[in-house]
Every structure is written in C-alpha cells, then in structure tokens.
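Worked example 2:
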Amino acid sequence: MITKETEKQSTWNKFWLWYERHVTESLILTAFIIYIQIPHMIWNADLYLETGMISRIHPILDFFMYGVDLIEIFPMVNIGFLIYSTIRKKRKQSMRIRNEKIH
C-alpha cells in the first residue's frame, strides 16, 4: 500500500497536481491554436485551388501558415491530458466515497 507521503513525493503526482492547477491556461492556449487554424485553412484552400489570393504571395507568410500545422500537436496532447486528468479525479472521488462507506 502506498502511503500519502510517498504519493506526494512522486514526480508523476506532482506533475498532475501542477497540470490540474493550470488547466485554464492550457485550454486558452489550445483555443488560440485552434482559432489560428482558420486562416491556415483558408490559406491551404487557396494553395490547393491555386487562386493566388493569399498563398505564394510572400515566402515568410507561407512559412508561418505552413508551420501552423506543426503546432496542432499541442492540442492533441492536451486533450489526452484533460481526459486522463478527469478520469484520475473521478477515480480519486470514487475511492474517497468507498473509504467513507467502509468507515
């Protein structure tokens, strides 16, 4: 059986406690990344349709619009973290309820 002191010192638990305290900031960053997908989607459609309205106008703009694809990884990882964090909280609550019923 793991004691509370050992559980508090675990790096794994320290990380999840820190993450749960900063969920709002994480969601704000995720929302920002998702919103910058809108101009990227328009740029990508312009590139695919070859209209030349915003794509291939300037190489730096193209570089940044292409780079938006690469930062999509953060929201994907964050969604996994949120799901795990929620499951972890529910598991702790159910364990607490079981312990209260036993005592």
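The radius of gyration is 22 Å. The CA atoms of residues 43 and 55 lie 6 Å apart.
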